[in-house]
Amino acid sequence: MKTIATLAISLILSAVLYADHHKEKAAEAAPFRHVVMFKFKDDATKEQVTAIETAFSALPKKINTITDYEWGANVGKENKNQGFTHCFIVTFKDQAGLDVYIPHPAHKAFVKLLLPSLDKVLVFDFTAKKN
Amino acid sequence: MKTIATLAISLILSAVLYADHHKEKAAEAAPFRHVVMFKFKDDATKEQVTAIETAFSALPKKINTITDYEWGANVGKENKNQGFTHCFIVTFKDQAGLDVYIPHPAHKAFVKLLLPSLDKVLVFDFTAKKN
Fold it and tell me: What is the spatial distance between Cα A81 and Cα B121, in angstroms, rounded to a whole number?
């Protein structure tokens, strides 16, 4: 009986991990990326920039079509960043996810906070493929 | 004996899937992103652009510090793409991975193929954080 129980638990564990693994793979298959870069005005304060970073990072909890989110400051050595200092990658399942995000009140409030400090923006949307 | 064999196989399968799952999670923790955007010259041909896309997509098999790679053409409706039509996100474990990539002969050969068709480039490197 013990052997059968161990076997059963082991098989269930395999099945659960395999399903989880495949779920992640499927979500990664062809995500829709919304790449956003900012260059702030010379007179934007450190406090204003930090407030914008914090507000952007709060959006994934407010807009449920966001499936992934990450950001960082440029550390490139090639000086080819066209003046942009901040890059944010907001991921959706598809274009429809972005179409919910753009007019969402939480996103509009973020843009309102952003604009007074913004010098230049870049937005690039694409369905990510591997080759 | 059959039961023991099944149990053994099942346990090995669990262990392998669990390890693979955790490996992916670890690689995702704070990946180093090398974001590259291209605007091609007006006289670049479709064949030249396709050759560049194909050559870039071949790099992950040639340079082993690349841990992830994806790309896509801009489909943004906001017209804020600053003229860039192609975005590539090359991922490394860390800055050291990029430092192997840049001077690698395969990367140099790719740049040689790219330059005659290139109008404008953007490169943005960052360590991805979630908030």
Answer: 9
The one-letter amino acid code at B69 reads: Y
CB contact under 8 A, B20 and A21: yes
Coil, helix or strand for A72?
strand
Identify which of A86, A109, A99 has the alpha carbon closest to the alpha carbon of residue A35: A86
The structure tokens listed for B123 are 């490169």
Beta bridge partners of B91: B33, B68
CA torsion, ordered A17, A34, A60, A29, to nearest 10 deg = -10
Decide yes or no: CATH 3.30.70.100 for domain B31-127.
yes
Q: What are the tens digits of pLDDT across the range A59-82?
A: 999 999 999 999 999 999 999 999
Mean pLDDT of B7-32: 56
A11 touches chain B (CB under 8 A): yes
Question: Mean of the pLDDT values across residues B39-65?
Answer: 98
pLDDT band at A101 (very low <50, low <70, confident <90, very high): very high
Question: Strand A32-40's sheet: what is its strand order?
Answer: A66-73, A86-92, A32-40, A118-127
| A22-44 residues labelled b (16+ CB within 10 A) or e (exposed) | eeeeeebeebbbbbbbbbbeeeb
The pLDDT score that the predictor gives to residue A22 is 44
Instruction: Scan residues 58-87 of B and list those with Cβ closer than 8 Å to A.
Output: 69-78, 80-82, 84, 87
